[in-house]
Each structure stands twice: as structure tokens, then as C-alpha cells.
Design a protein that fits this description.
Largest sheet: 5 strands, antiparallel
Structural class: mainly beta
Shape: globular
Number of strands: 32
Strand content: over 45%
Mean pLDDT: 86
Helix content: under 10%
Oligomer: single chain
Distance between the termini: 45 Å
Number of helices: 2
Low-confidence stretches: 1-19, 21-56
Length: 414
């Protein structure tokens, strides 16, 4: 068994004696043993045998505080026989479950997003987008509807100043930019861009299909994933006029189908999940001399590809602290969880495990990283799991909750 180097710490004599005894004991404890010294506070002490001493109970206090914090979850759904396209749930952080709270009447909410200031929620609907004020208890109050001058979108996001709204159009291959007001209402369209070109495969990949549009953290460039064309268009955003101009193209492998994009907390790394290849491309990002520069660093698989089986990767989701990245796989009906190296941007797989449902279109960790929820689009369920990151396990946590054709989920702290 490999030994970890001990981290120096200052302790008084009685704790020094205790540490020596524990080091001998932990040689046989295994890598997951933990001792809490309740009357001391300080950093984690790594011990021989891979065990750890957590000096003080501050970690427990942090966990308790998070469990006491109140969250709601917004789940967007298609309205097949149900007119309420957004479901709102109170989140039980201690038990890892949802409690139904409210429903919002809206047709075919294919995606929802929350403004960066946390005040407003925006949702795709038929023929446009709707805006809502987030009330103190997490309920939603309708503000207005705005047309996107096209077919129903599949993705919506805002820039980092909450002045512009971006709608990705899968069916018509159109990017729409709309103005946002300070009160959260959606204004006029400021720009429209139709992607053009021919794909390499008939049917789905024969023409443009935009599936995601999100800003870089410096609020300079809009990254737009085009599944049909197998590339990500990089647009420079004019934050005065709300106009976009093509600045670069990030190419994917042929028939990769770039679907969703996430960006690291520091903004230096970009993660693109490819639906058909079931891979995640990791890029570094920086701006040099007024030009965006992307360099591919890593490719990881989201699931095992077996001969004769068809799998398709779905959405990407960061944990609340950005330490973990999730993706889910249709066909395999699994969720994969990666640890994020925040220094290099690299991903390390922790597990890929079944979700107990059909076509997990989205999956997300609870804000405390202890639980996971999977939205199973074709089996009309949400399944819940207890997650142990250290052991790399995911265990079913109670029965599924029925919800018709769920699409995406987002948590919101009250």
C-alpha cells in the first residue's frame, strides 16, 4: 500500500502522542478511515495507510449549515397531456429528496436558466421564451413572453451582465439574441443568425442543429454548439448593440455531435460533450491580441461503447462547487461523474453507473454533493441516489418520483 507524506501540523504534547498511535493504527484502516478530533480546529492531516485526521469539527459544521440552507429545484418538462411545463420542488438536503411545491403553466419548457443575479428564471416555450420573477419562497411570478421569431428553441442562457438572452434553435438552426431589461423582462430581438451548411450524414446530421449557446466568463465570446455541423461557432458579442460576429470555429470530430458546453469556475477551461461519440472534449481558453485561443487538452469517454449498442451522451452539469462534472448517457442509461482538476482542467472518472430509468436527459448533484438526481425522459421519472465520492459509489435513495417527460433541472438557493 502506498503511503502518503504527512502534512506538518502544530499540536501540543498530548496530541503528538495520539498522532503517533493513530499512524500505527491507520496502516490497516484503509484509505477511507477518518477520525474527528472535536476539541481542535485546523487543516486535514493525512496519515499513513491513506486515512485522515480532520482536526476539529468545522467540516461537520459546514455540512450541517448546508443542510439547513433552503433550496428549490426547477424541472422543465414537455407538456404531453399536462399543461404545467415547469415543476417546482422543495429540496430536502438532509434526506436527498424532493417535495412537490408548485407548478407553472407553460407549454413545452425544453430548457430553463436562472439569471446570474439570481432574481429571474427564463424558460423556452413554444414560439419563444418566458421570463419569471423568483419569489422569496422560490415560487415563480410571470413577467412576460417574447417571440424568438422562429421554431421552438432547445436551450436558453444569459450573458454575465444579464443584459442579453440567447436562444439556441435546434429545429431551424438559428441563434437568437434578445435584449433584457433591469426588471427581468425580455425585450426585442437584437440579432439573429442562421447557421448554414451540409452535414456528413443524412437525416439528423444533414443540416445545422444548434443545441447550446453560452458566454465565456469574461463576457466576450458566445460559444454556440452546432450538432449538425460538428463544430462550435465562437461569436464576439457587442455588448452595446447586442450583435454577434463570428470570431472562430472550434471543430469536433466528424459525427461527434457537440451538444452542451460548460466552462470551469475560473473561465480558463471549456468542456464540450459530444452526443454521438459519447466523449467530452476539454479545451483551454484565453484571449491573445483580441482573438480567442482554444487548445484541446483531453478527450474522455462518458460510457463504454459496446458493439451493436447505441449510446448518446446528454447534458453536462457542474456540481455547485465546480469540483465535479456530470454527464448522462441514453442507451446505456447511466450517469458518469468526473473529478475536475482545477489547475490543469483535466477530468478523472470517478464512476459510471446506471440510473434506474430510460434516457437520462439530465442529471445533477445536490448542492452538498451527497445526493444525485437523474431526469429520465422516456420513463417519466426522477430517480435519486446517495453518492459517496471517496468510494466511487452511488446507491438508490428511495422510490422514483413520477414526472412527465422531464428535460432539465436547476437548483436555486433561497
Amino acid at each position: 500500500m502506498n503511503k502518503r507524506a504527512a502534512v506538518p501540523m502544530k499540536v501540543d504534547r498530548r496530541f503528538a502522542v495520539l498522532q503517533q498511535s493513530l499512524e500505527k493504527l491507520f496502516k490497516t484502516c484503509g484509505k477511507y478511515g477518518t477520525i474527528f478530533l472535536k476539541d481542535r480546529t485546523g487543516p486535514v492531516q493525512d496519515m499513513e495507510g491513506g486515512a485522515r485526521i480532520l482536526l476539529g469539527n468545522h467540516n461537520r459544521k459546514a455540512e450541517t449549515l448546508m443542510e439547513q440552507e433552503k433550496y428549490v429545484a426547477y424541472v422543465s418538462t414537455y407538456t404531453r397531456g399536462d399543461k404545467n411545463g415547469i415543476k417546482i420542488y422543495d429540496v430536502d438536503m438532509e434526506k436527498g429528496r424532493f417535495i412537490e411545491k408548485d407548478k407553472v403553466e407553460i407549454t413545452n419548457s425544453s430548457y430553463v436558466t436562472i439569471s446570474h443575479n439570481g432574481k429571474y428564471l427564463y424558460s423556452i416555450t413554444d414560439f419563444g421564451v418566458e421570463s419569471y420573477l423568483i419569489l422569496q419562497d422560490g415560487s415563480l411570478e410571470f413577467i412576460n413572453f417574447a417571440s424568438n421569431n422562429g421554431m421552438r428553441g432547445c436551450y436558453v442562457s444569459t450573458d454575465y451582465t444579464d443584459r442579453f438572452l440567447f436562444v439556441a434553435g435546434y429545429h431551424d438552426g438559428k441563434l437568437t439574441v434578445l435584449k433584457l431589461a433591469e426588471d427581468g423582462s425580455i425585450g426585442d430581438i437584437t440579432d439573429e443568425v442562421y447557421h448554414k451548411g451540409l452535414g456528413i450524414i443524412a437525416e439528423r446530421n444533414s443540416r445545422p442543429h444548434i443545441n447550446c449557446a453560452r458566454m465565456t466568463h469574461d463576457n466576450k465570446y458566445l460559444l454556440v454548439a452546432d450538432q449538425g455541423m460538428d463544430h462550435v461557432n465562437v461569436y464576439r458579442l457587442d455588448t452595446t448593440l447586442g450583435k454577434v460576429q463570428l470570431a472562430d470555429i472550434v471543430h469536433s470530430e466528424l459525427d461527434a455531435n457537440p451538444r452542451h458546453i460548460k466552462i470551469s469556475r475560473d473561465g480558463h477551461y471549456v468542456y464540450i460533450v459530444n452526443e454521438f461519440k459519447c466523449t467530452i472534449d476539454v479545451f483551454s481558453y484565453e484571449e491573445k491580441k483580441g482573438q480567442p485561443i482554444f487548445e484541446k487538452l483531453q478527450i474522455v469517454s462518458t460510457c463504454e461503447q459496446e458493439m451493436g449498442c447505441f449510446n448518446a451522451a446528454s447534458a453536462l452539469t457542474f456540481s455547485d462547487d465546480h469540483k465535479y462534472l456530470l454527464s448522462s448517457n441514453a442507451g446505456a442509461n447511466s450517469v458518469v461523474m468526473f473529478e475536475v482538476d482545477e489547475t490543469t482542467g483535466h477530468l478523472r472518472e470517478i464512476f459510471e453507473l446506471p440510473v434506474g430509468g430510460e434516457y437520462p436527459k439530465d442529471a445533477s448533484l445536490f448542492p452538498n454533493n451527497k445526493f444525485l438526481v437523474s431526469l429520465n425522459h422516456e420513463s417519466n421519472t426522477m430517480t435519486f441516489f446517495h453518492v459517496d465520492v471517496e468510494k466511487g459509489t452511488m446507491i438508490m435513495n428511495g422510490p422514483p418520483i413520477h414526472v412527465d417527460v422531464p428535460n432539465c433541472i436547476t437548483f436555486h438557493k433561497l
